[in-house]
Design a protein that fits this description.
By secondary structure, the chain is α+β, with helices and mostly antiparallel strands. Helix content is about 30%, strand content about 40%.
Amino acid sequence: MARILIGYDIADNHRRRIALRLLRAHTACYQASFFDCEMTPLQLNELSQQLCTLLDPQEDGLIFAWLGPGQSGAVGQRWTEGEQSLFLIT
């Protein structure tokens, strides 16, 4: 099992509600658009495929950050708009 922080920035309310339901199924520990999850590599792969299929890369942002001892890293592409800086998975 890996501990992963997953965050999103989703523009469309419908897509956001679906993503919220998908992520809530994996954890009870979340705040706003960030979710602290513990999952197997298989669970993570399935979830990331579902989210990437759902999201619009032109409008939405998604980040996976690995947490825990001996683990650090994030998957995504950094973009900056004004003062905001986010990671976007495409």
